[in-house]
Amino acid sequence: MSVTQPLLLQLGTISIITLLIAEKSAPAILVSLGAASEELFQGKQLPILKFPEIEKT
């Protein structure tokens, strides 16, 4: 089975177009994800840890 040159050209073109679309949309997706996670964790605080008393003898 031989792979023809037009088939390779089509596969290469599709992959390049897909990468260009992903490059344009990735920053917007990451910014919105960061904003959503910031709102999710806003106001959440870590619990206060109780340390045991160390007795000096």
Automatic annotation (TrEMBL):
It comes from the Bacteria. This is Uncharacterized protein.
